[in-house]
Automatic annotation (TrEMBL):
Organism listed in the record: Nitzschia inconspicua
Domain of life the protein comes from: Eukaryota
Lineage start: Eukaryota, Sar, Stramenopiles, Ochrophyta, Bacillariophyta
The DNA polymerase alpha/delta/epsilon subunit B domain, residue ranges: 246-456
Ranges of compositional bias, category Low complexity: 1-15
Protein name: DNA polymerase alpha/epsilon subunit B
Family the UniProt entry places it in: Belongs to the DNA polymerase delta/II small subunit family.
Keyword match Transmembrane: no
Amino acid sequence: MTATVQSSTTTSPVVRKSGGSTTRHTVVRAWASRTPKWQRFQPVRIQPNESTTTSVESKQKEVFAYQRQYSHVYHHRLMALRDRCWKQLAVNDGTKTNNNNNSTTNLDDSNPMTAVRVNRILELKEDQLSRVVGTLVKETINSDEELLHPKATCRPSDQLYLEDESGRVILSLDGTRTGVVDHQVYQFCTGVVIGVEGMVDDKGVLHVQYLATPAPLPPPTALAVHNTAGILEPSQPAGYEPHLLLVSSLECGDPQVSSLPRELLVGYLQGQFTDEASKVARVIVAGSGPSATDPLGGLKELDMFAGIQVSGGSNGGVGMQIPLDILPSSKDPTTANWPQRPLHSSLLPLSNKDNQRMVMSTPNPYEAIHGTKSVMGTDGLNVRDLQKHILKPNPNDKDEAPVPLTELEALEQTLRWAHLCPTGPDHLGMVPSNDPMEMGKTTPHVYFCGNCEEGFATKLLGYNEDEDDDDVKSKTRLVCIPKFSETGEAVLVNLRTLDVELIRFKVEEEEEENSN
């Protein structure tokens, strides 16, 4: 049996070990400060009236009022993203919004029509070119129809509505255009905030001429931190810039999953194979740490992984210790509704006993500032749920049936829609508080999703007109993290350049050749 650690940026394996012999290297870690920003994903409990019976009560007599409707969630989302939609409406066709917020003036004199800004859907008038912003609602008209694709819920007769606090209006996309691409109903889902320009007919249908998603919001060029973030300390190797190691689906405790790739990962992080591990400033486990088949055994093994092996253990010194953030997932023992609460400290006793500052259970979604870069991500459930409810035109032949989005495309779509989970709470369960998952005022430098069934994928998304601009301060690195239990792969992200590197931990069985 031969164990192999491979990097996608090298032409040959970084190191090989055979027969159990290894060489331990002295590790001096690259460093980057970490400032948690996930507090907004900790929902505040609501105290309802005493007569409430449909609620979940805690020991402190505080409850989540699940008897409430979710209209306040959509209202909060609309208020957070409305201004960005108005901005994009003005950009799309070269118009500017008047200061009185009542109309928009077209800068092209060849078009005599002026689009009137309507602040409430109920105030739309017939035969008047109008602009309005609202939340999309998609309804199935005929549930007996054949699906457009077996992996999605979209049907040919699905109907789109635009809704705000005043009412809703039917949308017709027959004349919709943004640039040169026409949009279809199957490309949208309930919960997306958009701006539209069009005209209402005598039947009360708004025929859309222009459609605008929230205007792009580049990541901040500079973030205030308490320490000199992203800069190596004088005692650290000058060649190692701080990196994040992203991994998901460890599936600790699953008897069907080999533990050898995890042991190779631990050895790599402890510097047993190469000094390149020094550049890893922090590890983020993006969901599915413990196995769902054996939760107790999986938590125990994950606790050992986090508290002893990754953090140095009895054989490791301070140089071998590495900070670790653990996100929960849909199969982990925590709350089911989003945002999910962190794994309780009692589930990981070894990790929280001596390494409280090194190992941190975080909510899902995740958000923090690492060095000078903001990092946001999830366990991937939001991406997989979005894939079930929207489709895209067939890239090979637009006349053919639409096809599902890839995981990377779905991840990018959530960023363009400025919402971590646009299908919630309509399809994905959410806590009935405000909507903390909107990205109205923040865009991350690194945006990841875990447990990706399609494997590793990445894209550097630009926000300037020149997408080839080398300035990473105005770009977002999208990362789809593969399932480690199936691929043995983890992802390194450079916190300065946003470059990514795929690392594989393989265990190859050597076949014995019969001399006869």
